[in-house]
Amino acid sequence: MSSSGSLPATGTHNTRSTPFHVIHILGNFMRIWSVYSLYSSLSNSGDSIVGFIFSCLVPSSIIFLVLQKPWRGRPLPNSQVVPTVVNGGIMAFYFVLWGKGLLACGPLVALLAEYAGAVLGVLSAALYGRKVNIWKKIGGLAAMLVAYYLLSIGWSTRTHSPLYSFGSEPIEKARQTFGVKEMVVPITAGILSALRRVLARRVSLKNQLKRRLHAITIASATCFLFPFAMWDTILGSASDSIVKFQLPNWAYLSTVLFGMVLIFYVDNVTEEKLHLVFSSPRHLMVSTGCIIVLEIVYQMDFSLFGFLVCSVILGLGIFETTSLERSKKSPLETHELSNGVFHNQLPITELPS
């Protein structure tokens, strides 16, 4: 009786969540498409990544400030504004490292390196978690390192992968292996990206407040990056870049609209409605599908099987590093905790895994 009664409720829940799954997939596809467009544009023009990121942050901060109006409503206390401004500095540093990693390693590696923030789960377990799970998390960290090492030696490329990759379509340019040292830059960017998300969750407990504080974060990141962009201009390395970025080309518009503005609201919707956080295997699965499509469309040096092997290993590592204690939890609690629903209910001194 109870089984038959639960089926319609499950079907209704799945039907209601379908639009949010579509929003999540389309939003991430558009964002990843903007990354490939940006890589194609910058690798051909040789423009300064610092100048480009700054020129994208300026209109993005204006859009967020106009939409959220953080000066309206209840005044924000210093206990929320000050960490948010500091978080803007972390965001600026993240964008610069991510852009340099994109140019050095390509869009595929730069996108997968964003999931390196899952290592915060290992740090959380080591400092505050139960010691019974620490070895599982260390094993997950080892799996992540293996995946990134395989990416660094070219397993995702047709040129260097030892695995057979079907398809005879031409590639625009064969990628050179870049090694472990170059991987440090995008991996560090991924850890910084996770850290800024942690700080945003700690400071803002409500979704509306999170949007207001994010507007301050973007504006703060723009201010932090301003002197570095001006320094590039003074040195002459970016004297023409900021002017050229004013033109409404696709790489610029897509980075602003999809890579900075839209993806924030998409992540908010998926986290609130689907209980799906960024550093999770399900999120990685969506990104993997989008990357495969765009690698083929852009005729990149791409090995499907090599890439899938790296993605599976990375997904297993993320699953173990972000797993929580399940022995004393109900199945529903276990599912929700593993996907970050109760992040805001954790003690303030504990890092979310």
Blueprint (SSEs and pairs):
Blueprint: H1 2-45, H2 49-68, H3 78-105, H4 107-113, H5 119-127, H6 134-152, H7 179-203, H8 207-235, H9 241-244, H10 250-273, H11 281-297, H12 304-321, H13 331-338
Helix pairs in contact: 1-10, 1-11, 2-8, 2-10, 3-4, 3-7, 3-8, 5-6, 6-12, 11-12
Features:
353 residues, mainly alpha, 0% strand
Describe the 3D structure:
This protein is an all-alpha fold and 353 residues long. It has one domain. 71% of the residues lie in helices and 0% in strands. The chain has 13 helices and no strands. Helix 1 packs antiparallel against helix 10, helix 3 runs antiparallel to helix 4 and helix 11 runs antiparallel to helix 12. The longest helix has 44 residues. The protein is globular. This is Zinc transporter 5. Keywords: Membrane, Transmembrane, Transmembrane helix.
Give a brief description.
The protein is 71% helix and 0% strand. With 353 residues, it is an all-alpha fold. Helix 3 crosses helix 8.
Q: Over all CA atoms, what is the radius of gyration?
A: 21 Å
Q: Order of helices and strands, N to C?
A: HHHHHHHHHHHHH
Q: Which blocks of ≥5 consecutive residues have pLDDT under 50? A: 1-10, 237-243, 325-353
Separate helix tally = 13
- Number of β-strand runs: 0
- The structural domain count equals 1
Assembly status: single chain
Biggest sheet layout: none
- Apparent shape: globular
The CA-CA distance between the termini, in Å, is: 38 Å
Helix content: over 70%
Per DSSP, what share of the residues sits in E-state strands of 2 or more residues?
under 5%
Q: How much is the average pLDDT?
A: 81
| Structural classification | mainly alpha
Organism: Zea mays
Transmembrane segments: 49-67, 79-97, 109-128, 140-157, 183-200, 212-230, 250-269, 281-298, 304-322
Keywords: Membrane, Transmembrane, Transmembrane helix
Protein name: Zinc transporter 5
